[in-house]
Amino acid sequence: DQQVKQNSPSLSVQEGRISILNCDYTNSMFDYFLWYKKYPAEGPTFLISISSIKDKNEDGRFTVFLNKSAKHLSLHIVPSQPGDSAVYFCAATGANSKLTFGKGITLSVRP
Amino acid sequence: EAEVAQSPRYKITEKSQAVAFWCDPISGHATLYWYRQILGQGLELLVQFQDESVVDDSQLPKDRFSAERLKGVDSTLKIQPAELGDSAMYLCASSPSTGGEEQYFGPGTRLTVT
């Protein structure tokens, strides 16, 4: 049973446009959500996170939105840059402190 | 900037052979994780250590996999015997706390079993 779902395997956007990466979860006990970015041949790096007490967190070009009632979060990248091309993993954790990852989405930003 | 170190970066082995991976977490990080990522899949937690103690190894195939962190610092993950289905990226991560937030990942070891 996949508790964190990233249903789209890939996304392609034009440089300068907005990238919207979606993530759904099923476990209502999750209370902290993270996005990681992964380049080929490298380990994932932490990007941005959000607590369940918030519905938005912004860091530069990156904003994460959380809709608890829909059990949905999204990562917005504005403006998108070619260097943003990578695999993005959504992850969630709760009281057991265990991170549950989605399968990832491959973002390609076209110059 | 402190980083998580892993070696080797790449490993090719024949099935039924033994293979071992090493991880050195960021200094002072009490929690260490081993993940497996099969191509196209998410990260699967294999084992979590808090200092030298195993906190969670529920997804570790214990018939062939073993992990240790004897002095609560660096860690070794071993597979014996390796099977074709073990081909994957093995990632080590560390965290200063057990809260599950922000884990720092190493570059991973790409294992290919032939």
Topology, element by element:
The complex is a heterodimer of chains A (about 110) and B (about 110).
Chain A: E1 4-5, E2 10-14, E3 19-25, E4 32-38, E5 45-51, E6 56-59, E7 62-67, E8 72-77, E9 86-93, E10 100-101, E11 105-110
Chain B: E1 5-7, E2 10-13, E3 19-24, E4 31-37, E5 43-50, E6 53-56, E7 65-68, E8 75-79, E9 88-95, E10 104-105, E11 109-113
List keywords for this structure.
heterodimer; A: 111 residues; mainly beta; 6-stranded mixed beta sheet; 5-stranded antiparallel beta sheet; 11 strands; 0% helix; 54% strand; B: 114 residues; 7-stranded mixed beta sheet; 49% strand
Instruction: Give the overall pLDDT of chain B as a whole number.
Output: 92
Structural class by secondary-structure content of chain B: mainly beta
Global structural class of chain A: mainly beta
The whole-angstrom Rg of chain A is 13 Å
Short description:
Chain A is mainly beta and 111 residues long.
Could you describe the 3D structure shown?
By secondary structure, chain A is mainly beta. In chain A, 0% of the residues lie in helices and 54% in strands. Chain A has no helices and eleven strands. In chain A, the strands form two sheets. In chain A, strands 2, 4, 5, 9, 10 and 11 form a six-stranded mixed sheet that branches. In chain A, strands 1-3-8-7-6 form a five-stranded antiparallel sheet, with no helix packed on it. Chain A is globular. By secondary structure, chain B is mainly beta. In chain B, a hairpin with a 5-residue loop joins strand 4 and strand 5 (43-50). The chains are: A mainly beta (111), B mainly beta (114).
